[in-house]
Design a protein that fits this description.
The chain is of the alpha/beta class. The chain is built from three helices and three strands, in the order H-E-H-E-H-E.
């Protein structure tokens, strides 16, 4: 999981909002890691982009995030 757990814990972070270029790859993985660590996670879709820009794939990626307990704001 890398240094995310320590950075969040040591910084006293509450809920996590994740944005970035690869919404369906890096952003999704980071948001899932945050949830696994016990944080509430939100992904802001318009503040990023999909690597595999295909409408069906984009919808599926967002559904997977929601299923993982991540709030998705489009």
């Amino acid at each position: 999981m890398g240094p995310l757990a320590g950075v969040l814990r040591d910084s006293g972070v509450g809920p996590v909002t994740v944005v970035g270029i690869a919404t369906d790859v890096c952003v999704a993985a980071t948001a899932r890691d945050a949830v696994r660590l016990g944080y509430e996670a939100t992904v802001l879709v318009r503040a990023g982009a999909f690597v595999h820009a295909h409408p069906e794939g984009d919808r599926a990626a967002l559904a997977e995030l929601r299923d993982a307990g991540i709030t998705v704001i489009e």
